[in-house]
Amino acid sequence: EAGVVQSPRYKIIEKKQPVAFWCNPISGHNTLYWYLQNLGQGPELLIRYENEEAVDDSQLPKDRFSAERLKGVDSTLKIQPAELGDSAVYLCASSLQRRGVNTGELFFGEGSRLTVL
Amino acid sequence: RKEVEQDPGPFNVPEGATVAFNCTYSNSASQSFFWYRQDCRKEPKLLMSVYSSGNEDGRFTAQLNRASQYISLLIRDSKLSDSATYLCVVNGAGGFKTIFGAGTRLFVKA
Question: Which of A35, A102, B82, B110 has a CA positioned 20 to 30 A from the CA of residue A68?
Fold first, then answer.
């Protein structure tokens, strides 16, 4: 079974440029997460989707970050314009919700490593 | 105060040693707990869930102390391959608010 797929794996851009990341979750997983991870830190939630609905985007910097999950499957995360401080690894994860309860295990993609110059 | 706190380490131990990590959480309503492992430049992966009664998986033992709001991970007979960052994870009600600790770095040396 395929895992969570993310692209691109690496991206180097200049500040003020836009960037987009794509995620394809595990088939059948209705919950999708975007996390940001800085060096030496744990993943920090940016946004969580249940199907196509963003149910927790409280930590998403909405002035420059946007996300969508059309049709409740694939998702994209966009940053426009990027700033130097956005350099980090952007992790996508998915999980399965059963009877209104999250099973707890998150399956992560390999991440997209962003460098902003 | 952070919602989930871990000693960042690093813990440097010889092969065969026993090592223990603790993690404290601030929200007494937290409902489920996990340890994830993250290798260098890789994604986090579930190591084990932490149950109220404690649980063991081979050389790994996880314990939960709700009264003191901490969880622990014990690794016995450390192997070189255990070298990684161990992330403490706490879920809120329904498992939807998933908080990661900053991780504890472990180096196992020959």
Answer: A102
Beta strands in chain A (DSSP E): 5-7, 10-13, 19-24, 31-37, 44-50, 53-56, 65-68, 75-79, 88-95, 97-98, 101-102, 107-108, 112-116
CB distance A43 to B98 below 8 Å: no
- Sort out which chain B residues have CB atoms less than 8 A from A48's CB and list them: 96
Residues 6+ apart with CB under 8 A from A86: A79, A114, A116
CB pair distance less than 8 Å for B102 and A41:
yes
**B107 pairs with which residues across the strands?**
B12
Condensed to tens digits (0 to 9), the pLDDT of residues B17-43 reads: 999 999 999 988 888 899 999 999 999
The string of pLDDT tens digits covering residues A46-69 is 999 999 999 889 899 999 999 999
Q: Does A99 touch chain B (CB under 8 A)?
A: no
